[in-house]
# Entry
Amino acid sequence: MTQDILHGIDTIVPENGLAKKLAHGKTLNIKLGFDPTAPDLHLGHAVVLRKLRDFQQAGHNIIVIIGDFTARIGDPTGRNVTRPPLTTEQVMANADTYIAQLAKVLDITKIQIRFNAEWFGKMGFDEVIKLVSNVTLGQMMQRHDFRTRYEEGRTIALHEMLYPVLQGYDSVVIDADIEIGGTDQLFNCMVGKMIQDALGCKNSQVVVCMPLLRGTDGHEKMSKSKHNYIGLTEDAENMFGKTMSIPDALLIEYLELATSYSETEKANMKAELDSGNCNPAEIKKMIARNIVTIYHDAAASEAAQLAFERKVQKKAFSDVDYQPRALAELGLTPDSTLLDACHAALPEKSRSELRRLADGGGVKINGEKVSDLNTALTQTAMPFTLQIGKRDLFRITA
Amino acid sequence: MTQDILHGIDTIVPENGLAKKLAHGKTLNIKLGFDPTAPDLHLGHAVVLRKLRDFQQAGHNIIVIIGDFTARIGDPTGRNVTRPPLTTEQVMANADTYIAQLAKVLDITKIQIRFNAEWFGKMGFDEVIKLVSNVTLGQMMQRHDFRTRYEEGRTIALHEMLYPVLQGYDSVVIDADIEIGGTDQLFNCMVGKMIQDALGCKNSQVVVCMPLLRGTDGHEKMSKSKHNYIGLTEDAENMFGKTMSIPDALLIEYLELATSYSETEKANMKAELDSGNCNPAEIKKMIARNIVTIYHDAAASEAAQLAFERKVQKKAFSDVDYQPRALAELGLTPDSTLLDACHAALPEKSRSELRRLADGGGVKINGEKVSDLNTALTQTAMPFTLQIGKRDLFRITA
# Structure
């Protein structure tokens, strides 16, 4: 079990700290911070959550810190539009959404949930001064983001430097043995350790950072704002289809970080990939099947695969695959263009994205590629089928 | 009167701000900050206080901010031994001492005194975050001390960056029109202006910085810790004697910054100095007389000059100038050395200082220089007179 827990971690500070804590045999407090401004979880977050499940199954205590204190303040400068102040109701709703998603990986009946306004809400200015005196500017500037912004002469509002100290102090309050996050959280997690040490706590937390999963674009880390994510609550077909859309270069990364295959199974699949004798798409399907099974179930996973193969791979769509749309329902008239129709059917794609898709042969009318989206709909007999990209198919009726 | 107020200031920000505020004709709120860890005032502080008196005499409102909130916290890191946390009683005692000294320059029945724990004591962490969000790291790093310490890799605890923000916020609370200090306070005063502006206050304070007075050593700014100061509460003879000890190179600086002579009188004295026909010691005496008159009165000033001339210049001491000391009272025996006797009589001078003084001819027995302080007292007939330096004279009796 200890071997399972130690497996797949990117960074442990101090290096032998986790093995030592585990060897001690006591129940450990494992801290997981949650920023309630961003409640949607995806496979990137799940890398951390699945490691937490290893800890939970070994009998350790998972403590989720809801950072409600700062979420309700937001960014007082108003410069960061992604951080408006949240009401208590919004924080609670986001926390509920978050915990419901945690349930897809963790036994949430056994986790502890703490809201940090509990301790920060009653902290006076004098205590704030004493708290932040434990941290130096030099330590804060170890954070890459602060250092580069300072060196480039960009603005760092002073309260931003307090935020890592706040979340670090959470570790003191909950007596954390371990704080876990992605490797992009190394700095924040280290501040927790630093403050525990500065305040002479008996516990000095071990920092455990999991590797970052790249998104479906194959380049950037998975993130909602980059639109390259696979959400934990997506339906089985979307989850399967999005996984099938990752570039082959990410197969091993997804196999390692996102699936529940055993080490032996993973080794076999890697060997097959290395041999060059197998079609990577077959391995990708196995990965997608496994992922959908984790977040839905085996039956849903099988159905998702069948639907995917029928629609995308065999390019054979049955009537049931079409999404029928009447012109009026889409807000179109016969004078509208094909571009208008595509955008009305798939509003999440911008007009320029749709043009690029058509240029690449990704838009089809009755199965035939069309490159000129400026054509009026009157040029096409109704009803017709409109395929946009690999997976979206509509039947447009008058 | 406006001309008097504008006279002798080193820096005004914005440059035409003070003239504009004065032209407006309303009663101005003039802020003076006081750090209650250092209650002893000297002629250096008086440069600022005498400018405040100009404002007070013109009918403006002087508001003294006692920084009790941070004084009671002290330096939480314990690294700065000059900032232990003060008790409320110590703060009050220091404030009393301070205000009693202010009375030597200002009409203290007309000043307003505010303790900043009044507003900071009830400020919550959320309000602290909003407050400090108005200031950027870049702005704080304009402070020379912060910038050099950061660049040299020395420690800056994060709470130190909050302190200028606190004292800046004082300006918001008291609705300051003007903040005054020495040129070494320019940064702190500017933070007050910055925070008023960031919070959209109707008042944006004008910063008025007075020149710094150098101490009796002729080099460093006057400061208690440098032992080069002339305290406002020193007795007339010490005040006169210390002023007479300043190097000639500082005569004009003291004439300008420390005396109450009129502009015409100052101009005449400067012309005399420039002519090279007068003894600078005579101008120095006029400066010393004026200074002692300000903080004592004309009679005390005259007596101080007479005593100084008798003792130091004419080297003619009368019996009344001697401080009689018996061996036993000094903890000496006839076997003690001359060095023991000097150190017992003047314990504030170290043994090595006394040796250097003797080497330079500054120690005399019965008016004769002695260079060897290792001689036993038995070598000298009792009683004898012992002169140490220019102003300390003892009669040592058996």
User: Anything to note?
Assistant: The longest helix of chain A spans residues 158-174. Chain A touches chain B through 36 residues (CB under 8 Å). The first strand of chain A starts at residue 11 and ends at 13.
